[in-house]
Design a protein that fits this description.
The protein is 70% helix and 7% strand. The protein has 452 residues and is mostly helical. It has a two-stranded antiparallel ribbon with strand order 1-2. Strands 3-6 form a two-stranded antiparallel ribbon. Helix 3 runs parallel beside helix 8 and helix 7 (177-208) runs antiparallel to helix 13. It is globular. It starts with a helix and ends in a 17-residue tail after the last helix.
Length: 452
């Protein structure tokens, strides 16, 4: 039974991780496209319109792949996690329905107008279409986060006679502090992804000496948005979410930090290898008393370790949780440093000709994807062994009538199909980038041995 449960979890982990590669870029690009359209109108500068059209193409490709890879997860609730759906459907079904009926249709309808209606709409109506795409994509993210936040910190519910969860206050579910903090942290991460991708494409064009006017716009907007949201990602969103996590999931924060014993003046371990069997961190490099200060604002505050909780309530993969959290935090620090240096060079007027910085921006674009994936791993591994924290354990929510063999069969099938989708996506985006922004200055021919 444990083997089958593990495969069910692996199956959903694969599909949702692959799926989130696409909406994080659409949610990140949506506000940046609105900025480009706004500047185009205010300055009456068609270069920004051309930039918006270019990124709308990449947005559209991501949107299609996000839809295709998101649909199977809806079915997995019923096939692989039937008991979970039966018990919690009365609560989580409502925000998921609102995401599909309202925000998805809002985003998709206005995306069509934005992509194909520019010649038939006024400039402000076309700006309005871009804004509605942004609103739809961010509303979609909010309803999904509300669903996950209820699983992390259940509020506004009652239990029926059959043990199922029902809504007592939908407003309380929608406005849960956990949902608001998780949403703000998640969306700042999405904008970091959009910013880094935009800056990377601009850096590529500058290194290639192609589409240079557009490239400067891409790099400038990507760096400015990147540094703003990298700061927001650390403070206040990351800081406040960490404090709230420590209050409501203390076992999770202890496992994330590798804190096996309760300590006053608890340290932050920067590097190390947790050993749950021995309850130790091997080869640690730590900053003494820093964890106490970050959580409670004082260096001598006591932080609960895993020794304060029953072993069966510990997160069930502490090493993976520990490394996922540290990868996320480490990359977040890297984003802040890279964008701050790039913003300084931009202010000095030297960024566009500083090849080392352009290479760094171009090569850094995969890292926000890794950081966002590590962040979600941290959230979901940290909630274990609960599907609904403190109320429904994971081992009681899966479909025990679906065998491990059937689950392996479908997982391998998904892997094959998603590999084809991934190759198609890369080829389509590569074609858009190779064509460049329509009407942009082609600049000089690229020298031999160039970045492309």
């Amino acid at each position: 039974m444990e083997d089958a449960l593990f495969i069910h979890r692996l199956h959903f982990a694969f599909t949702i991780t692959f799926h989130y590669l696409f909406p994080q870029l659409t949610m990140g690009l949506a506000p940046l496209i609105v900025v480009l359209k706004t500047v185009a109108i205010r300055r009456n500068d068609d270069r920004y319109n051309q930039a918006a059209r270019f990124w709308a193409k990449i947005f559209g490709i991501n949107f299609v792949l996000g839809v295709v890879t998101g649909i199977p997860m809806e079915f997995q609730f019923g096939t692989n996690w039937a008991q979970f759906s039966k018990l919690t459907g009365g609560v989580i079904g409502q925000p998921l329905m609102m995401e599909g009926v309202y925000s998805f249709f809002l985003e998709s309808a206005f995306l069509g107008l934005f992509l194909f209606g520019e010649q038939r709409l006024s400039k402000w109506a076309h700006w309005g279409a871009a804004f509605m795409v942004f609103l739809g994509s961010w509303l979609s993210g909010y309803f999904i986060i509300v669903t996950d936040a209820w699983m992390q910190h259940p509020v506004g519910y009652t239990r029926a006679a059959d043990g199922s969860f029902q809504v007592a206050s939908f407003l309380q579910i929608l406005t849960s502090p956990w949902a608001l903090l998780q949403y703000s942290h998640n969306m700042s991460g999405a904008v970091i992804t959009g910013s880094f991708v935009m800056a990377a494409v601009g850096a590529l064009y500058l290194l290639e000496r192609k589409h240079e006017e557009q490239a400067r716009i891409f790099v400038r907007l990507g760096v400015i948005a990147g540094v703003i949201f990298s700061i927001i990602q650390v403070f206040p969103t990351g800081d406040l979410h960490g404090r709230y996590l420590a209050k409501h999931q203390p076992a999770t924060i202890a496992a994330m930090e590798g804190l096996f014993e309760t300590r006053a003046g608890a340290p932050i371990v920067l590097i190390g290898q947790p050993d749950p069997a021995k309850g130790t961190i091997e080869n640690p490099i730590a900053v003494n008393e820093a964890l106490s200060f970050l959580i409670y604002g004082t260096f001598r505050a006591e932080v609960k370790g895993l020794d304060q909780f029953p072993r069966q309530d510990w997160p069930d993969n502490i090493p993976l949780l520990f490394f996922a959290y540290h990868i996320m935090a480490g990359l977040g620090t890297l984003f802040l440093l890279l964008t701050a240096v790039s913003a300084f060079l931009l202010w000095r007027g030297t960024l566009y000709r500083t090849k080392a910085a352009l290479w760094a921006l171009m090569l850094a674009f995969p890292f926000p994807y890794i950081a966002n994936t590590a962040g979600w791993l941290t959230a979901e591994l940290g909630r274990q062994p609960w599907l609904v924290y403190g109320l429904l354990r994971t081992e009681h929510g899966w479909s025990d009538s679906v065998s491990s063999g059937s689950t392996w069969f479908t997982l391998l099938g998904y892997m094959g199909m998603y590999a084809v989708l991934a190759i198609s996506f890369v080829l389509l985006v590569q074609r858009v980038i190779a064509e460049g922004p329509s009407g942009a200055d082609q600049g000089h021919p690229a020298p031999a041995g160039s970045a492309a």
